[in-house]
TrEMBL record:
PANTHER family: ALDEHYDE DEHYDROGENASE (PTHR47495). Residues 199-277 form the Aldehyde oxidase/xanthine dehydrogenase a/b hammerhead domain. InterPro entries: Ald_Oxase/Xan_DH_a/b, AldOxase/xan_DH_MoCoBD1, AldOxase/xan_DH_MoCoBD2, AldOxase/xan_DH_Mopterin-bd_sf, N-heterocyclic_Hydroxylase, OxRdtase_Mopterin-bd_su_IorB. It comes from the Bacteria. It comes from Pendulispora rubella. Pfam families: MoCoBD_1, MoCoBD_2. Signal peptide: none annotated. This is Xanthine dehydrogenase family protein molybdopterin-binding subunit.
Length: 706
């Protein structure tokens, strides 16, 4: 079902003092026979004046516990020190859009900007009317500030009025504040979740404890395409603390009293797997095949003009291959999930991006209705897309384990399980040919992209894949400001299939399309003897947002001045998820290794609800992107991933972290996302800087000097 605007407003008005107890941390009560009803939907005001914002989306470090609460608080005019946030239950009919409750695509603040402000304005209207009725004055005569409604010398707090306000009929519509009168939106605000995380009070799913809870580890196929043949539980059951060994669809689970017993039991498990068909995927061979496939056009993404005549007439031609490997998400909190099945009901605790899917699939596994499955979304210790997939793999596995074991179970993935467990950023190869005229402007552009589809075989396939093109594979291509000025062009796509499971990864297709495009544009600039900044600005003359961020980043980085001895600068710009980001990287080479000293970043994200959060997310995205640019690579041999933990799949270390300066443009552009857009430009900016320093063109990630 969907909720009408009027129905939503009614729900918002009924919550002013409605109380829902916190999720139990050490015990579990049998869930009610039906999911929570809409009256506790988005906002609660307590008699102690606390304002609790219930979030439809998941907090995984991106700062929406604060940002979304700011939207309500702005219109409500409450005391910000009284504001709290909490995750909503899985209830897609209320908290979802088109009956889907999920967090991804840097869309949370964009999608909720009007809705959450409307909640705040509606609640304020009802509180003011309640105060006016008590004083027998016109509502317009009342003033509201910091959670207090006043008329002359009289005043009442929100908490004192909550019960009366709840009984009033919500307004049919409300007028939202003019941006000129905003007092909270656009100001730097410290995060609401930081105190909990600093003190250790924050609950992640790995922290959840229940009476009788057991821990499970799963032995999964060691190679993509391998299948379970047989297993002998005897040795595992002989380990002290191991209680059960159960088969599930994706492997064999060892259930024990605690983690270490489950780990030792799994290590001792005697298990036989069939080898993958054809010997399994080899990443070196796979990329060679991708390069061969890239030599012929695929499904058309963009096409215009007469390509070959344009190449024939070009004054200069370039051709290059750009390659990126499979990448794991590797969040600091490995995947885990707690499941308790009791009396026909199922309770799930998970740090998840996709609670409505988790709920639906759990119900299907257990043969119960969706309303009998409660999903408690905890904090997520990182995700980057891994906890949002079509199969809800880490949740459904946990449901299968709890069902087979007959006890409450916390299923935990080790770091090795997490890195070798699939659902990776797909490997891609780009072949790009470009012809330029005598002035150095591109007149012909032929680009072929080869890589797996994220959407194929999922519930999103019909939406994501059209005419053989997976739009997640070609992010940024159709809207490219560079391709816009090329009269003759063709971009095409091949979607080869492999047994390797793939998934969106922070900034999705932009991770490889930005690398290929921004590196090629830099190659064109140098090949035609142009300054890389001036060359880009010339091509971007009809795209003022791009020009503005580039100019600002270059100015703040000192582009026109010489860098320190032994260093060089490179730049890149990208629009992703509605925000435009430019970066200048300053690098050196130390003992044959690339060292990034400084990154200067300019961002146009439209309205910056919380500039502190924008700055933090840009820093985070750059660190994440640098990890991939300098280190990230998964190697498959015989279908098995060779890397296993942070020693051979390393994140960026503290000593490698560059100084980052973030500059946010004042902009009247539509609001864009911010969790992902700063990841794509960093790899090409560094690669372009390395060329400026060494004259070596590095076209393969991770970046390695010859």
């Amino acid at each position: 079902m969907s909720v009408s605007r009027r129905g939503f407003l009614q729900a918002a008005g009924l919550v002013l003092h409605f109380h829902v107890s916190e999720v139990a941390r050490a015990a579990i009560a049998k869930p009610p026979p039906a999911p929570l009803a809409p009256p506790n939907a988005f906002l609660r005001i307590g008699t102690d004046d606390t304002v609790t914002v219930v979030l439809a989306h998941s907090e995984m470090g991106q700062g929406i516990w604060t940002g979304l609460a700011m939207l309500i608080a702005e219109e409500l005019d409450c005391d910000w020190s009284k504001v709290r946030s909490e995750h909503a239950p899985a209830l897609p009919s209320v908290y979802g859009e088109e009956n889907v409750q999920a967090t991804g695509g840097s869309s949370s603040t964009i999608g909720q900007f009007d809705r959450y402000r409307t909640v705040g304005a509606t609640a304020k209207d009802m509180l003011v009317r309640a105060a006016a009725a008590r004083w027998k004055v016109a509502p317009a005569a009342c003033k509201v500030a910091r959670g207090i409604i006043s008329h002359g010398t009289r005043s009442l707090t929100f908490g004192e009025l909550a019960e009366e306000a709840m009984k009033l009929k919500p307004p049919a519509s409300v007028k939202l504040k003019d941006p000129a009168s905003w007092r909270l939106i656009g100001t730097p605000v410290r995060r609401l979740d930081s105190p909990e995380k600093v003190t250790g009070r924050a609950v992640f799913s790995i922290d959840v404890a229940l009476p009788g809870l057991r821990t499970a580890l799963i032995a999964r196929p060691p190679a993509f395409g391998a299948k379970l043949v047989s297993f002998d539980p005897a040795a595992a059951l002989a380990v002290s603390g191991v209680e059960k060994v159960v088969a599930i669809p994706n492997g064999v689970a060892v259930v024990a009293k605690h983690f270490w017993a489950a780990k030792l039991g799994r290590d001792a498990l005697a298990i036989t797997w069939s080898p993958p068909e054809g010997g399994g995927v080899d990443s070196r061979t796979l990329l060679e095949n991708f390069r061969t496939l890239a030599q012929k056009p695929g499904a058309v993404v963009v096409e215009a003009g007469k390509l070959e005549p344009a190449f024939a007439a070009a004054a200069h031609r370039l051709e290059a291959y750009y390659e990126v490997p499979y990448l794991a998400h590797a969040p600091m909190e490995p995947l885990n999930c707690v499941v308790n099945i009791d009396g026909g009901y199922c309770e799930i605790w998970a740090g998840t991006q996709f609670p409505s899917n988790d709920q639906r699939l759990a119900a299907s596994i257990l043969g119960i209705t969706v309303d009998k499955v409660r999903v408690h979304t905890t904090f997520l210790g990182g995700s980057f897309g891994r906890r949002f997939n079509d199969t809800s793999d880490f949740v459904t596995e946990a449901v299968h384990v709890a069902k087979a074991a007959g006890v409450p179970v916390k299923t935990i993935w080790t770091r090795e399980d997490d890195i070798r467990g699939g659902y990776y950023r797909p490997a891609h190869v780009h072949r790009i040919r470009v012809g330029v005229d005598a002035k150095g402007r591109p007149v012909a552009w032929d680009q072929t992209i080869v890589g797996q589809s994220i959407g194929r075989g999922t519930q999103f396939e019909s939406e994501i894949i059209q005419n053989g093109v997976d739009r997640a594979s070609v992010h940024g291509i159709k809207s490219s400001p560079y391709l816009e000025v090329v009269p003759s062009k063709r971009v095409s796509l091949h979607l080869p299939q492999t047994p390797v499971t793939v998934l969106w990864w922070r900034s999705v297709g932009h991770t490889h399309t930005a690398f290929a495009e921004e590196c090629m544009v830099d190659e064109l600039a140098h090949a035609t003897g142009r300054d890389p900044l001036a060359y880009r600005l010339e091509l971007l003359e009809k795209r003022p947002r791009f020009s503005a961020v580039l100019a600002l980043a270059a100015d703040k980085a000192g582009w026109k001045t010489a860098p320190p001895a032994g260093r060089a600068r490179g730049l890149a710009v990208r629009e992703a998820f509605g925000s435009v980001v430019a970066q200048v990287a300053e690098v050196s080479v130390e003992n044959g290794r690339i060292r990034v000293h400084e990154v200067t970043c300019a961002v146009d994200c439209g309205i910056a609800v919380n500039p502190l959060a924008v700055e933090a997310q840009v820093q985070s995205a750059i660190a994440f992107g640098l990890t991939a640019a300098l280190h990230g690579k998964l190697t498959l041999v015989g279908g098995q991933v060779q890397e296993s933990n942070f020693h051979d799949y390393p994140p960026l270390r503290m000593f490698e972290m560059p100084k980052i300066a973030v500059h946010i443009l004042r902009s009247d552009a539509p609001m864009g996302g911010i969790g992902e857009p700063a990841t794509p430009p960093i790899a090409p900016a560094v690669a372009n800087a390395v060329f400026a320093l060494t004259q070596q063109r590095l076209r393969t990630l991770p970046l390695r000097l010859a």
